[in-house]
Amino acid sequence: MNTTSSDRTGTPQISETPGVSLAVASSEADAAAVDAVIDHHAQLAAALTAHVGIVLDAVRSTTPGEPVRAVERLVEFCEAQLLPHAAAEEGVLYPVASAYPPARLLVEAMIAEHRVLQSLVEELRKNRDPIDGVSASSALLVLFEVHLAKENDLLLPLIATDPSQSLAEILSGMHDLLGKERHEDHGATGEESSAGGCGGTCSCGESDESEPTLDVRQVPHEIRHATVFGALGAVPPGGTLRLVAHHDPLPLLAQIDDRNPGVFTVSYDDRGPKAWRLRLTRSR
Predict the structure, then answer these.
(1) Quick check: 198 and 49 in contact, CB under 8 A?
(2) Is the pLDDT of residue 24 over 60?
(3) Which helix (H) or strand (E) covers residue 56, if one does?
(4) Whole-prediction pTM value?
(5) Radius of gyration, alpha carbons of the chain
(6) DSSP run (H or E) holding 277
(7) H/E stretch holding 112
(8) Which residue of 134, 141, 199, 230 has the fewest C-beta atoms within 10 A of its own C-beta?
């Protein structure tokens, strides 16, 4: 969708931002800040989707201990990235949003959702039963997708449309909200970078060989690369992500190698003409 921005002189500009309703932002920097947060959301959600898919695959596996290891990796991801992101939102973004009377109940509900996310992660950490792990991880994913949609479509535009607020300044330096590579420049240019997460737009699933599959043909162009980066972050050493694309994704593969030199090897199962199917295997 489009997010309209202004340079504080009254000249509106349009920024392409998936998942956000058409809104007039107070500055071009604020529109770029919205883009940066949504980009990071896409990466977080793609990584979570891939982790949950790995848990489901592991439960079907006959390898002893694999379900427990898959759940442990999911918990590590949540405790290292997802929960710190939620805490950063409560510390920086939500206090500003709650100052708007129409948004107070929404913010309270979103904080309550954070508590449910925390309880689900704690359940995964303590419970070693594979079936319970599938149930809790699936609930975690569904809730996170719904939660991100509220942030992208409601909270971010609310702040970005207020000329008395600067979303770019509010989020300045917020590593956990914007991602370690986007937070440095989100308020200045709005340019694409290689960091990003998805409000449920990625389609990680299981192939016949029990390897997660991401069909990027179903992912909006604006968050496609961020979604792939997030999904790759969930692949363990020796694991493989199957990628399906409209075309040979050579620019994406170059970015992956720039970000992780020598970490992923690429092989092709199909080279078009309707779809390119690749296997990206993590070496370490």
Answers:
(1) yes
(2) no
(3) helix 28-60
(4) 0.70
(5) 19
(6) strand 276-282
(7) helix 104-126
(8) 134
